[in-house]
Structure formats: C-alpha cells, structure tokens
Amino acid sequence: MWSLGGRFITKVGDGESAGRFALVQTLAFRTSEPPLHVHHREDEAWYLLDGAMTFYVDVQAIEATAGSFVFAPTSIPHTFTVGREPTRVLVFASPAGFERFAAELGERASSDVPSAALAMPGPDVIGLVAERYGIQIVGPPRRVSALG
To answer: CB within 8 A of 115, min separation 6: which ones?
Structure first.
C-alpha cells in the first residue's frame, strides 16, 4: 500500500505474531519524512537495505546507509530524513500496531509507481489518527537531509 508518503508491505503483522511485533518493508521518499513524534506503545527500529537516511532520536543524529540499524525506544522523540530516493528499509515495531496505523492512512497500491497524491498527511489528519495508536506529534518534520 501507499501510505505516509511511501510504500509499505507488511511482512509480519499483529495477526502473525500474536501482537508481539510487526515487520514492514518500506520504500521511503522525501515525502515519507514524518513530523517529530513519540510512540507511547511500541519501540521502533529500522534496518536499511539500500539508500541513505538520517535519523534524529532524542538529541542524537544518526546517518544511516545500507546495513545500518537504528533503534528508537518507546517514549523517545524521533524523526528522519531521506537522503537518497528511494531508500528501502525494514521497519520493526514491538509490540505490533504501527502497521495498522500506516494501513488506516494508506491506499492499496495498484502498481509500483507512486500515486500522484503521494504525500505525508497534514497535521490535522495525521495527528488525529496517530493519537488512536498512541503516537504523539511533538514537532515539525526536518526538511533538509544530511545525506544526498
């Protein structure tokens, strides 16, 4: 599906893991760059398959390329920028739930070509849905990627 400015393929969701974790393969673009946010229910982690991203976890900036693993524990503010489009990344969430958040905001992908309307939802939309999943928006997105 296309959601949150990128392409999401759920590999393992709450149904397959009894709610313990989710694994989502994501194709990330600059349109995927989220506002600064906090997950109050789950830890989140990323493993880059290819491409480049910069993660901001609390006060730390982490430049990541293929083979990098980045972890954001529950209740720690984080965001990221995409330095190379597209970047392929595995997103882990424990416990599961993040995949349902992405699905609620997304649309079924009918092809590998992004929808012309591909974009991160605005704060009025994303904030309301995020709240239902224990995600709190705490600041704006970062707009400049450190990697290019």
So the answer is: 2, 107
Torsion sign (Cα): 125, 131, 137, 141: negative
- The answer to whether the Cα torsion of 122, 107, 109, 28 is positive or negative is positive
Cα–Cα distance, 63 to 33 (Å, whole number): 15
Q: How far, in Å, CA of 35 to CA of 15, rounded?
A: 28
Burial of 147 (0-12, 13-18, 19+ CB in 10 A): middle
pTM of the entire predicted model: 0.90
Q: Which domains does the chain have, with CATH numbers?
A: 2-138 (2.60.120.10)
- Tens of pLDDT, residue by residue, the chain (148 residues): 999 989 999 999 999 999 999 999 999 999 999 999 999 999 999 999 999 999 999 999 999 999 999 999 999 999 999 999 999 999 999 999 999 999 999 888 877 766 655 778 888 889 899 999 999 999 988 865 444 4
Q: Which residues fall within 8 angstroms of residue 97, CB to CB, at 6 or more apart? A: 14, 19, 22, 41, 42, 133, 134
* β 69-72/135-141 pair status: unpaired
